[in-house]
């Protein structure tokens, strides 16, 4: 938990990362940044999907619509926060010459998206009114 709190502080002061270890090959830092941006694109897509479910499926039963929308919105929020945290952890590991950090988050995100997709399959089969 202390490491997470330290990482959050670095989110707003990224120059602190440069004080650790040696500067890695810039290509690795740029690849880390591209990965960060890919996670942000995923977060934006999830958030957009949450709004789309809420706005464009008005005939869907309220519980289904709100549940699916909130699941997608929450996944988008978590994905955006995880993106910056993972960027900091990877940059720090590269500077220290350590292995890149492993993460269970991609699995968790995949499961959330799969559950939402299965729920949408149920909605399609049962019709909008459920």
Structure characterization notes:
- There is one protein chain.
- By secondary structure, this protein is an all-alpha fold.
- The chain has helices at residues 2-11, 26-56, 62-96, 105-126.
- The longest helix is centred in the middle third of the chain and has 35 residues, at 62-96.
Helix percent reads over 70%
Structural class: mainly alpha
Low-pLDDT sequence parts: none
Count every helix, treating DSSP H or I runs of 4 or more residues as helices.
4
Give the overall form: elongated
Order of helix and strand elements from N to C terminus? HHHH
Mean pLDDT: 89
Largest sheet: none
Question: What portion of the residues fall into strands of 2 or more residues?
Answer: under 5%
Question: Main attributes?
Answer:
130 residues, mainly alpha, 4 helices
Topology:
Elements: H1 2-11, H2 26-56, H3 62-96, H4 105-126
Helix pairs in contact: 1-3, 2-3, 3-4
Q: Summarize this, please?
A:
By secondary structure, the chain is mostly helical. It has helices at residues 2-11, 26-56, 62-96, 105-126.
